[in-house]
Amino acid sequence: MAHALEEMNGEVAFALRGAPAWHNLANVLFDKDEHINTQTMLDSAKLSNWNVRLEEIENPEGYRSHKSAHRVLRTNPFDGGTDILGVVGERYQVVQNEGLFEFGDNLLDGGASWESAGSIKHGTVVFGSLVIPKEFTLDEKGANDKTTTYLLVHTSHDGSVALQASITPVRVVCQNTLNLALGSVKQSFKIRHTSSIDGKIAVAREALGLTFKYMDDFEAEAKALFETSVSDKKFNDIITTIYPKPEEGNKKGLTVWENRIDILNDLYFKSPTQENIKGNAWGVFNALTERMDYFKERSREGQGKWINASGFDAMANAKKNKLFRQVKQLAGVK
Question: Secondary structure of 83-108 in the HEC alphabet?
Answer without folding.
Answer: EEEEEEECCCCCCCHHHHHHHHHHHC
